[in-house]
Amino acid sequence: MPVEAASIVTTIVSNPLTGVAMDGYDPISFFVDAEPAQGVADFEFDWGGVPWYFANGANRDAFARNPEVYAPQWGGHCPSSLARGYLSDGKPQIWLVRDGRLYLFHSDANRDAFLDSPTATLAQAQANWTVLVKGLNGPEPGMMPQAAKEP
Questions:
Q1: SS3 16
Q2: What is the DSSP letter of 146?
Q3: Which of 11, 73, 109, 120 gives 20 to 30 Å between its CA and that of 127?
Q4: Kind and range of the H or E element at 82?
Q5: Residue 138 to residue 151: CA distance in whole angstroms
Q6: pLDDT of residue 81
Q7: Can you give the pTM of this predicted structure?
Q8: Is residue 66 a contact partner of residue 109, using CB atoms and an 8 Å limit?
Q9: Residue 129, by phi and psi: left (phi above 0), alpha (psi -120 to 50) or beta?
Q10: Which residues are registered as beta bridge partners of 21?
């Protein structure tokens, strides 16, 4: 019997083997470090039904206070793909922080397409997310673009 996509694709992109969000990258590091850092299991925080790893306790605590600010938008799904009407996992190695929000992209080409028309891409991605999220497993994360809060 075929497996339905909704049973595998979730609202928060996580590693299929470990279950950890963002392949274990520390989401805070995208905002404060020159390069994103790998987190470690010693500094884990569960949010949205998924474990998140951090490089240190201070980053974990900052995330715990306001995860919607630091978590990637749309649970880590690629905004360019969402704008085209489908889901694809964003990769932490292909990222962008724009207007105080973290976006993960499936490919360099998707990030380039986003940079060509970010406002239109974000609007279309949000419109499509509200429909696509209904078929996903897990709680609907509060990770849709909104007025940026200061980290």
A1: coil
A2: -
A3: 109
A4: helix 79-84
A5: 26
A6: 96
A7: 0.85
A8: no
A9: alpha
A10: 14
